[in-house]
Amino acid sequence: MKENGSFDVRHDKEEYNIYGFLNNHPGGINYLKPYKEKDVSKRMQDTKHSKAAYYLFQEYNKNGKRTSKGQDDEDLEKLVNWNEPMLSQVGNLGINYKEWVISPVDRELRLFGNPMLENLTITPWYVVPLIWIPVISYLIIYGSERYIKSTHNPSPTANIVLHIGLGIILWSFLEYSLHRWVFHMEPSGKSKVMIYLHFAIHGLHHKVPFDTRRLVFPPVPAAIIAVVLYKIAAVLIPESVSILTLSGALLGYLIYDMIHFYLHYGAPKENSYFYHLKRYHNQHHFAHHDSGFGISSVAWDNIFGTAIKLRKLNMSIKW
């Protein structure tokens, strides 16, 4: 939902009110302040704003209409009805889906027409720690008790911490793998089922990156995935170890989800770890959709050669 306020700029003889975008701009507020009531056309061209940035910019046109003026691409939002549930529409986009889904807009999105199903897809950020911290705590306590009984180890602390730490590392690899090879699969324009699946699990986040209700993973599907992973692990390793490893993996997931929300709406201090992560994730959303898959860490991007090289800044960013 766009905020009320005024921060007008001009571009290609059109006027835009980008007040609602000030805190979301990848360059921060300090890059935008000098351009209030001024023309930004040359600045956007000189800084080589991405295609996605130009597309998003049209959301703030003061005449209330999107225009492709000055761009080669049509307004893809004409292909869907934003007043209707989106999941039932995306399959009809066909070959246009890939371009549409990586062209961001500043709106709230309704996925299902059924209110009960829709509510299952909407998750305020604070729900995640409220649900998962007690679950993780229980698994660590229960798993530790089972581990002590099964090993008769009088000093089990180091091994327990090791198994939990292993779970965190496994999660970080799973985070990267899911994001790269599942969430960013490229569905064929001929397969409506694959388009529906892609949009439901991740495409919608790239389409509406500022929708606060869709920045963390809903608990129900997260719980289903956790149970499946636990069942697999229980076949391969002793139950007590699998419980501890699962608790570590869930802790890693919890940290990831909170970091992801913070990277969209937090204001990290200059040169901090999260400062660089926020810049990195912004690049993934608005310029490099096919790289930069790490969210809580860039380690696996560096290992697999998908890292984004951040350009040197002329000034610090203040979000």
UniProtKB/TrEMBL annotation:
Domain Fatty acid hydroxylase span(s) in chain numbering: 166-306
Keyword presence, Transcription: no
E.C. number: 1.-.-.-
Cell location: Endoplasmic reticulum membrane
Binding-site list for heme: 25, 49
Keyword vocabulary terms for this entry: Endoplasmic reticulum, Fatty acid biosynthesis, Fatty acid metabolism, Heme, Iron, Lipid biosynthesis, Lipid metabolism, Membrane, Metal-binding, Oxidoreductase, Transmembrane, Transmembrane helix, Zinc
Pathway(s) served: Sphingolipid metabolism; Lipid metabolism
GO CC annotation terms, alphabetical: endoplasmic reticulum membrane
Primary subcellular site in the record, as a coarse category: endoplasmic reticulum
Superkingdom per UniProt: Eukaryota
Function, in words: Plays an essential role in the synthesis of galactosphingolipids of the myelin sheath. Responsible for the synthesis of sphingolipids and glycosphingolipids involved in the formation of epidermal lamellar bodies critical for skin permeability barrier.
Protein name, entry field: Fatty acid 2-hydroxylase
Organism of provenance: Sitophilus oryzae
